[in-house]
Amino acid sequence: MLSFDSALSNALKLGNTTAFWVLKLYYNDDSTATNFIGVSDTYRVDGSDTYYGLVSSWGNYSQSLDFFNFTTSTGNMTVKLINTEQSIKGGRFTDLLSTNNFANRKWELFLNTAQAGTYDTSDRMIGTGVISGNIKHDMNSVSFILLDKSSIYHKQIPTATVTSALYPEAPEKNLNKPVPISCGDFSRNTEDDYYKYFDIKGAFPAIITNRCDSDGKINALPDTNQGSAVRLNLLSRDNIYMSNSGEILNALSANVTVTSAPTNAAQSIIKAKGTNYFYQHLLTDSFSTSTRFDGTANIVDDSLTSYQTYNSGSLLEGSNSGELIDSLTFNIPTVPKLGEIYENADIQLILKTSNEASGGAGTEVTLSNGTGISPAITTDGIHIASLSNKYSASDLSSASLDSVAWTLKSQTATDAGDNSLSYRLLDMWIMIEFYPSQIFTKNVLEEHERINVSYVNDGTQFERDDNVTSTVVVSRTRTFNTPAEIEYLYYSGKGREYKAWIDADSRNNGYNEQTLLENPIYIIEDTLRTELGLVSANIDYATFDLSGNTTSGYLGDIFNDAVSDVKFAFSQYKFINSKDYIERLCRQCFSWVFISGDGKVNINTLRRDGDYTASDKTIDFKEISLKGISKTKLNAVRNDITVNYAQDYVQDQFKDVVNVTDSTSIGTTVNGNNQSLKLETDADVLDITTATAMANANLIIFKDRKNIISFNTTTPKYNNLEIGDIIDFSNWDTKIKLFGVAMDGYWMITSISKNVSSANISVIQVEK
Known about the structure:
Layout: H1 6-13, E1 19-26, E2 36-40, E3 44-46, E4 49-52, E5 55-57, E6 61-66, E7 71-74, E8 77-82, E9 106-113, E10 125-131, E11 136-137, E12 141-147, E13 156-157, E14 181-183, E15 204-210, E16 218-221, E17 232-244, E18 247-251, E19 256-259, E20 269-272, E21 277-282, E22 308-312, E23 314-315, E24 324-325, E25 327-332, E26 339-340, E27 347-353, E28 358-359, E29 365-367, E30 381-386, H2 393-397, E31 404-410, E32 421-436, E33 441-444, E34 448-457, E35 460-461, E36 472-480, E37 484-496, H3 520-531, H4 541-548, H5 554-559, E38 570-572, E39 575-577, H6 578-589, E40 591-595, E41 601-605, E42 617-620, E43 624-631, E44 640-648, E45 653-661, H7 663-666, E46 678-682, H8 688-702, E47 707-713, E48 726-730, E49 746-754, E50 759-767
Parallel strand pairs: 2-4, 34-39, 36-46, 42-48, 44-46
Antiparallel strand pairs: 1-2, 1-9, 3-4, 5-8, 6-7, 6-49, 8-12, 9-10, 10-12, 11-12, 13-39, 14-38, 15-16, 15-37, 16-20, 17-18, 17-37, 18-21, 19-20, 21-32, 22-32, 23-24, 25-31, 26-32, 27-30, 27-32, 28-32, 29-31, 33-37, 34-35, 34-36, 40-41, 43-47, 44-45, 47-50, 48-49, 49-50
C-alpha cells in the first residue's frame, strides 16, 4: 500500500474533498529535476513549478495480478492534452517537440487535494514509468501513452558473458555465451575420504574460458565475470568434474585449484588438468540372491538410507538356521568407454558401512584373490580394496573393462564364535582412474528461455476457457531460438553469497553478508541488484524482509515450514529475460513482484488461510458500488500436483519427483469437483523437504475455487491501495451473502484501476 502523507490522508477522508492529479512529463535528460512540463486539468502553480491546464482527459492507472500464475502487469495509461494555438508558452504543445524529446523519458503522476498543499512530494506519487515514443497529435489535441517502468528493469540475463576482450583464449564456441548464475547448496554431503568425491547434491556447469593455460590447466567460470564482486560460498577442489557420454568423471584433486572468494579484479574460478579423472561405477543389482541374508533385492541403491545386514562367517537364524554363510559374491558390470585406463591405473573397490558393525577378535574381510580391505569391516565408515592387480595390461589398454566376478568373504569362520562378523552395507562401487577423452561440449539445444504455461487435454495444447477440459497444466521454463554447443566443466559446491545490501539500511532479516544465498525471496532481490543494477532507492526492501526474514517471513507461512528450511539450489546457465526468470522464481515461492506507484520494486508473498490476522485497509461498504460476486474458474482447480526437482545439468533432466493429491477436491461424492485435474511444475530445488512443501503449498492454493468480489469506490480515499494489498470490509449489508455464506475474512486486491475520483477494484478471498 502506498504511504500518503497525513495531510493528504486527512483531506481525502473529508466528504466534500475534490481530488485532482498533476503529471510531470520529463524530456531530454530526465535525471535533471527541472526538465519537465507539468500538466493538470486546470492551471496550477506549486512554488516554482507550473502545471498547465491542458489535460482534456485522463486515462485510468491500472495494476493487476494473476493469482494462480504469480505474474503482474501495469496497464498503459493514455493522457490527452489540448494542442490549440496559444495553449502553452505562446504556441501549441507540439511546438515543444522540436527541442524537447519526451520519448522514452520518465513520467510521474501525483494525487492531491486543494486542502493538502504541495503537489509533487514522493508521498503523493501514485504512478511512474516511461513515456512511449508513440506520440500522436492533430491541430487540437496530442496524446501521450504512459508505460510502466518495467521496461527499463528487464533485460537478458545472465549479464556476464565470455568475451574475447576478457578471455582471448576462450574456445570460439563459448564466445558471447552466458556465464552461469549459481545459487544454493549443491555441495557434497560427507567428508569421508573417497566418498566425498561423488556423494554430492548436484553438479553445476562452469563455462570454459581457456582449454590450456600456462600451467596446462583448463580454466572455467562457475559464476560471474572478470572483475565481479560476486562471491561463491564454497568451491572444493575435491568436487570438480567432466562430463563424458552423459557420465560424470571426478578430477584428481591434486590437479585442481579453485578460488571462491574474489576480491578486486579476481573472480571465482576453477582450474583443472585434463588428465587423471575418476569414474564411480555403482554395483547396483549385481548380487546373487543366494548369498543374501534375507533374499531381498537391491542391496546397493545409491540412496545412503537403505542398507542390507550381512552375517559373514556366522550361523544364520530362522529358516536358514545352521547354514554357514562365509562369503558374498558380487559382479562388476562392464565399464563404458570413457577414455584411456592407463597401466597401473588406480582401480579401487569402495564400501560404505554404517551402524552395528561388529566382529570377533582378529576378524577381517578380504577379496577372493587375497586382497585385504582397509580398514577391516569391523569398523564403520569407508572401506577400500585395490582391484588393479586383477586386470592385465591388455585389459587396461582396451579402454573399457568387462564384467568380472569377485567374492567378499571373511578370513576364517567355522561357527558363530569369535570370528563371526555382522555389518550393514549402505553402498558399494568401484572407482577407476582415467585419462578421459577430451570431451567438454554440452549440446544446449536452445539457449534462450522463457516461461511457458500450457493447458493440455489428451496431449493437445489449446486456449484456456471456462470449462473443465484442461486436465493437466504444465508450468515450466521452455527454451527457444538459437541452438548452441558450449564447453563446460562441472562442479559441486555452494553458490552466491549475500552481499553488503542484506545488512544495509538498518535491515534485520536474520541473514548476514558473506553467508550462503538460498532463500528465493532474496535470490530475487540479488537478481535486481546484481544483474539489473538496482539499488536500495529502487527497491522497497521492507517488503522483501516481510516475506523472507527468518523469524516471521511470509515464505514460512505458505511453505508451512521454517523459512530457513526453504532452500533453493540451481544454475541459470542459459540466457533468459529477467522478467521471465523472476516470475519463474515467484511461481515457486508463491510471490508477486511488481513496480509500485512510487517507482520501487515490491514483493508480496501469499500466506495460507489462517495466517492473515489484519488488513492493510478496511473498506466501508457504504463507500462502494458493488458490481458482482463470483468464483474463480473451475478449470483453475488443481488437485493432483507433481513437482519435478533435482535437475541433472549434465543430462538436462530432473532426477526426482514429488506428487500430492487431495481426494476431497477430486470428489468421491457430489461435494467434490468430480475430476482429477493435474498441475506439473519444475522446481529449482535439490532437497525433498522443500520440494514436498512446494507441492503441498500448490495443493492448498489450487484445490478449491475461491470467492471474487468486484466493486467501484465512490471516493478517492482508497487510491493508495495496490495489487497484493489485503483488505476487509465494514458495514457490509448482511442481506448480501457470498453464495449463501455471510461476509467474513480477508481479501487480496488482484486488480485496481484508478481515476481522479474513484477506483475500480477486484479482490479474491484469501482468509475465510
